[in-house]
Amino acid sequence: MAIPRSVHARLVERFIFNFRMPPEAFARRLPTTWLKPQICNGWSVVSFCILKLDRVMISPLPGAFGFETTSCAYRCGVMDTSGGSEESSVYITDRNTDLPMIARLAPFLFLDTIPMARVSIQRAGDVVNIQATYLDRQPLFSAQVTQGELTSKVFPTVDDFAYFIKGGVSSYTPSIFGDQLARVDLAKEDANYEPLNAKVDYSWLDGVWPGEGLEYDSAIRATGGLYKWTYRGLKPY
Question: What pTM value is reported for the model?
Answer without folding.
Answer: 0.95
